Amino acid sequence: MTSPQVDTYGGDRPTGGTTGARGGPPGGPAEEGYERGLGSRQVQMIAIGGAIGVGLFMGAGANIAKAGPSIILMYALAGVMIFFIMRALGELLLYRPVSGSFAEYAREFLGPFMGFATGWTYWLMWVVTGMAELTAAAIYIHFWFPQIPQWVSALVFLVVLFGVNLISVKIFGEVEFWFSMIKVTAIIGMIVIGLGVLTLGFSDAGETAQASNLWAHEGFFPTGIGSSLMTLQGVMFAYLAVELVGVTAGESENPEKTLPKAINTLPWRIIVFYVGALTVILAVVKWTEFSAGTSPFVYTFEKMGIPLAAGIVNFVVLTAALSSCNSGMYSTGRMLRDLAANGQAPQALGRLNVRKTPALGITVSVVLMGIGVVLNYVVPEKAFGYVTSVATVCGIWTWMMILVSHIRYRRGVRAGRLPASSFPAPGGSVFSWVAVAFLTGVTCMIAYDQEARVCLYVGAVWAVGLLIGWQFLKRNDPGQARGPVVAGAARK
To answer: How far apart are CA 215 and CA 180, in angstroms?
Structure first.
């Protein structure tokens, strides 16, 4: 083995790439060079905020119109699968907590190409999501200041969030903490007020608000079970970013304690923020009054006759959009750095600045998000639907890689080749297989839906681009062709 050298990735790493990130397990968080600036309360709130986004505040309206009250069951079913995914990720994180997270695990257990594809695909997911969220945030500002040009608002948000991510991870964590706090407070307030309307009958909605609204209007499945299942593709978009807690692993102060706690509270977050909020909303207002393009939260507050309801919820939705964009900038910089550390992106993208943030990686991503703001300014509104569909497909790929990596890891543990994690997923790899089957079914539904199908075409083009890039990379760096250490051991 060659002698170690200090590089830009924050630790002593052997030249030639025979261990560490390319070779498998040894690379731990201490070798990455990041500042451990995310405390327990910040990680907890990032995990909570990751499960609450525009997909709930805005997207739920279209899903309610398609499925009626049964949408509650769809969010619950998807939430169970998300919990399986996160427990699989949690086991991997405690086996080896690294900021590269799922891309690093795909590289270790499935091979260099899968790590390459997963890292770049997750990066793409956040870039296109950032494009949509910035433009959406600018539109929300029009609610109060219609005279401000949309591009000006988008540019201001882009610059401010860019600065937040560039300064330090502590500032990012603090901003995300308060963004998430606003979202959580809004939903809890909605639930408390809604329960008051149902039990005490006050407000303008008091006369018609009743639990029977959940089944009295053509039943719990008013449009049929098939139509309800078809909403799962939109429902899954609402859960994008829940996996972001895995990216924080390399910068958490105490990942062994904070990450399991954040993941184990996920079921309660889903029950309260999704199932609970939607149940109260659909009991207060019958499902036939909701439509696509209208926030069920805004409409329900207006139905209750609460003053300034639209303004309050518009502020919350604005916060959700900015929170998502903020998380995207954070995540893209870390993914590019992980790719660079493994020779799968330009080495310059792997450098940390004096504040221990991947400044160049964040800058490159922000520039591309800025291009998206310009494009979204001139294209029709349908572009937002296309962007969210592409983001969903990228998210499904990421979740699939987490699950398959977990299955391979468990196989290595059973064979005695790998140490057991201190945070094992319940049921071993059984529930990972269940979640893989579920995500496969959701992908089939996307292919069946004529409007959503376009994202699969985009995905196919992206896959071809990845294959071309991989072939180019292998020609310039033959060492990239080495297979996964664990997979190789399994075949011996």
So the answer is: 33
Q: What is the number of other CB atoms lying within 10 angstroms of the CB of residue 80?
A: 15
More confident residue, 101 or 193: 193
4-6 and 12-14 strand pairing: antiparallel
Residue identified by tokens 């996160």 is 86
H/E run at residue 13: strand 12-14
How confident is the model at residue 24, as a pLDDT? 40
Q: Which of 183, 162, 158 is nearest to 171 (CA)?
A: 162
The total of other beta-carbon atoms located within 10 Å of residue 162's CB is: 20
Give the model's pLDDT for residue 385: 61
Contacts of 186 (CB under 8 A, 6+ apart): 297, 312, 313, 316
pLDDT value, residue 438: 96
Could you tell me which of 165, 187, 190, 183 has the C-alpha nearest to residue 175? 165
Q: Which residues have a Cβ under 8 Å from the Cβ of 243 and sit 6 or more positions away?
A: 50, 85, 86, 89, 101, 102, 395, 398, 399, 402
